[in-house]
Amino acid sequence: MVWSKETEETMPKIKYRFSLSQEERDELGAIAAKGKHNSQKVLNALILLNYDEVATKPRTLGEQDIANVLKISAMKIHRTKQRFIEEGLGVALNGRKGKRVYKRKADGDFEAHLIALSCGDPPKGQAQWSLRLLADKVVELGYITSVSHETIRRVLKKTNSSLGKRSAGSSHPTKMPTL
Q1: What is the structure's pLDDT at 96?
Q2: Where do the domains of the chain lie?
């Protein structure tokens, strides 16, 4: 990949330098050697091992060369080193945990109303309830202010109702009595 002068100028000016302890080096080496970790964790371990200042083998490749070999951006290298320095090995390897908290819309009372509605008769002109029809009806009845058909599917999937299941038919035929 060819980098223009503009790209090089947008690279961060801060150089993060660090030296790993022998324990950290062993842990990172084990992660990089075994294939039982997700790819991003292995890449982060390889990045940290390559930029160790007191490594047994001195680094001969430049940052852009390492980025090309690992098929990642130079910014990923920079961010991984920065996270290691500022937040420690665990965050550098695994990334940060999401801070967003999701409020659950479907509580037990809503679920009970939904299941009762889905077991009842469908609207006139419909052979059966669809997920979108159920979503519209629960909003109309005031059980909830807004809801998507996907939320309706997830709630019904937890029950034995066929609307939320992947296939409406039975995957295991019932055994017929022999005559």
Answers
A1: 83
A2: 11-94, 108-157
